[in-house]
Amino acid sequence: MDSDRIDGRTELAASVSRVWRALTNSTEFGAWFGVRFDSPFQTGHESVGQVVTPGMEHLTWRAVIQDIEPEQYFAFTWHPYAIDPDRDYSEEVPTLVEFRLAPTPSGGTLLTLAESGFEDLPDARRAEAHAMHQQGWSQQMKNIRAYLDEHP
Questions:
Q1: Is residue 28's pLDDT more than 70?
Q2: For 122-145, what is each residue's pLDDT tens digit?
Q3: Superfamily grouping for domain 5-150
Q4: pLDDT, tens digit, for every residue of 60-82?
Q5: How far apart are CA 135 and CA 100, in angstroms?
Q6: E strands, 26-142, where?
Q7: How far is Cα 62 from Cα 64, in angstroms, rounded to an integer?
Q8: Entry pTM
């Protein structure tokens, strides 16, 4: 297992344009990810939202949108497993989250995910952040699938 990176992939029964909208429209992203955003995603800007997942409502979601290449690539940086509201994570190097989309022969979409940069985290946080995000991304891939099934 690579301790610096998490990779995931799932084939979705939705068009690339539909998956793209679910990823890059902040309202739709928030619906399946569990965050309420007040503004759209914009390259180079910090995106801030209130976590609405039960039991985690005390957390604020923060990420800087790094790149948006329509219907192909969406990337942001954030501080992984930043769950202590009293801790300042801003001095830590953030990880990079990347989504890539590709059409499948069946008319669906192959969604791939990579989160990298865990080796730059402080030793005391690295293993737990990696393990929790490994579990979290597995769940989020299920969440986007369920969201697209319910909102074709």
A1: yes
A2: 999 999 999 999 999 999 999 999
A3: START domain (3.30.530.20)
A4: 999 999 999 999 999 999 999 99
A5: 20
A6: 35-37, 46-51, 60-69, 73-78, 95-103, 109-116
A7: 7
A8: 0.95
Q: What distances in angstroms separate CA 27 from CA 35, 57, 71, 81, one per listed residue?
A: 8, 17, 17, 22
CA 41, distance to chain mean position in Å, is 12
In terms of Cα–Cα distance, which of 36, 59, 64 is closest to 49?
36
- What phi and psi values does residue 98 have, to the nearest 5 degrees? -130, 135
Tell me the three state secondary structure of residue 20.
Answer: helix
According to DSSP, the residues that pair with 69 across neighbouring strands are 73
Token pair of 119 as six digits: 């080796």
- The domains of the chain are located at 5-150
Question: Parallel, antiparallel, or unpaired: how do β-strands 109-116 and 46-51 relate?
Answer: unpaired
